[in-house]
Amino acid sequence: MEETAESSKLWCGAAFVMGAFGGRRGRRSAIAGLTALGVAQLVSNGVGKQLVDRPRPPKEWIDHDEVDDRPASSSFPSGHTAAAVAFTAAIAPLWPLAATACAIPAALVAVERVQSGAHYPTDVAAGALIGLAGARLTRHVPQLLRHVLQRPRTVPQLWRSAARSLF
After folding, report:
1. What would the pLDDT profile of 43-81 be if each residue is shown by its tens digit?
2. How far apart are CA 120 and CA 74, in angstroms?
3. Model's pTM, two decimal places?
4. CB 82 within 8 Å of CB 134
5. Fewer beta carbons within 10 angstroms: which end of the chain, N or C?
6. How does pLDDT run across 117-154, given as a tens digit for each residue?
7. Is residue 43 a contact partner of residue 137, using CB atoms and an 8 Å limit?
8. How far apart are CA 61 and CA 42, in angstroms?
9. Which are the contacts of 105, defined by CB distance < 8 A and separation ≥ 6?
10. How far is the C-alpha of 163 from the C-alpha of 85, rounded, in Å?
11. Residue 79 CB contacts under 8 Å (≥ 6 apart), including other chains
């Protein structure tokens, strides 16, 4: 599972299939999923791993050969999990059946990250939360921008409006 999740190949492939065979709904779902995936990876790998320099779980905890194939980057948060959850959560409102199909490999990615010794369970949980936030942002930012651009406001009004739209 790790090889297909690497560099988000699995999710890009799912987006291609949705876009090619899913009509308008498939294209919208693919765009939403890939956008959320990009946001989640930016936050988890570009920000989270830079801020939290957590070592990987000790090699003694893992009793198989995969332990030597672990990345050297920070363990926290799990970028693979963030990407998987973001993609799946972003397509869920647009195409629930496709999201259901994606939920199984997304869960397997999360489990595999802990089983392989690449992450602690808390790394995976944080990655999942980042993925959910990325999906939510992807869904609500376009609406927020439309709302803001229709009526000019002061900066405090913009912040209050943004907070109501996102939360």
Report:
1. 999 999 889 888 888 777 776 666 666 677 888 999 999
2. 11
3. 0.81
4. yes
5. C
6. 788 899 999 999 999 999 999 988 877 777 666 765 66
7. no
8. 29
9. 1, 4, 5, 10, 84
10. 23
11. 40, 41, 44, 45, 49, 127
